[in-house]
Write a structure and sequence with these properties.
This protein is of the alpha+beta class. The protein is 44% helix and 21% strand. The chain has helices at 5-17, 22-29, 33-45, 67-74, 77-80, 93-103, 123-130, 141-144, 160-170, 197-209, and strands spanning 49-52, 56-59, 86-88, 107-111, 117-122, 146-147, 174-183, 186-196. The protein has a four-stranded mixed sheet with strand order 3-4-5-6. A two-stranded antiparallel sheet has the order 1-2. Strands 7-8 form a two-stranded antiparallel sheet. Helix 6 links the parallel strand 3 (86-88) and strand 4. Bound molecules: adenosine-5'-diphosphate. Adenosine-5'-diphosphate binds next to strand 5, helix 7 and strand 7. Adenosine-5'-diphosphate (ADP) binds next to strand 5, helix 7 and strand 7. This is CBS domain-containing protein.
């Protein structure tokens, strides 16, 4: 919340003199109590100042708190992640399209035989290859996928806000949720979920309900 110069001055006075009554604040500012009232209401309603009856105003020590921002920063990807649909690197583009319809998803995560994430294919990736003259029964998804290390991923420990920010910044529909594992000198990514625009919309609806 952006404070006006007078509101900032009031906060400063309260910080230095707490507890302080509205009369005393008004006096310091050469104002009437009535003139001060709107600013004091804004500062108490936004949580910057605490008002205790018959004692006075205190500085709450907290910046203007925003409940939504607190919530979405505290909710972890692990709590909101959805079930990912994966497909093997060698599967055909045709199989990928069928899987997209059967599973009713927009993005498929492509994994190696050992289950580690190597890429992903989106609706548009599949459409692009399907409208050409290519034989989609013969082309493996591994050839057309967006591959590691170019994937934007999230970990279960990141916040819902971090995930939404990545979706917006990178203009993608889905992020694989990965656990990073070290095997010898190789780093492997195990897909444990996904966060998509739908996941974020569902969270938005939940927060709205509450
Ligand atoms: P759509 O096919 O509906 O446009 P996206 O906007 O998610 O779906 O995908 C746009 C492009 O970005 C595609 O080429 C896709 O492979 C790629 N892409 C999608 N998700 C990611 C991601 N998490 N990381 C990197 N690239 C991605």
């Amino acid at each position: 919340m952006e404070l006006t110069p007078r509101q900032a001055l009031i906060v400063d006075i309260v910080k230095k003199n707490e507890p302080i009554t509205s009369e005393q604040i008004a006096e310091k500012l050469n104002l009437t109590r009535a003139a001060l009232r709107p600013d004091l209401s804004i500062l108490t309603m936004s949580g910057i100042l605490d008002a205790r009856p018959r004692v006075g105003y205190f500085f709450s020590g907290k910046p203007a708190r925003n409940i939504i921002s607190e919530k979405i920063n505290n909710i972890k990807v692990d709590e909101i992640k959805a079930v990912p649909v994966v497909i093997k690197e060698g599967s055909s583009v045709y199989d990928a399209i069928v899987t997209l319809f059967l599973e009713d998803v927009g993005t498929l995560f492509v994994v190696q035989e050992d289950g580690s994430l190597v890429g992903l294919v989106s609706r548009k990736d599949l459409l692009k290859i399907a409208i050409g003259n290519a034989d989609i029964h013969k082309i493996p998804v591994g050839v057309i996928m967006t591959r590691m290390p170019n994937l934007i991923t999230v970990t279960p420990e990141e916040s819902a806000y971090d995930a939404a920010q990545k979706i917006v910044d990178h203009q993608v529909d889905a992020l694989p949720v990965v656990k990073i594992e070290q095997e010898g000198d190789k780093i492997k990514y195990r897909v444990v979920g996904k966060v998509t625009k739908t996941t974020i919309t569902k969270l938005f609806v939940e927060l709205g309900k509450a």
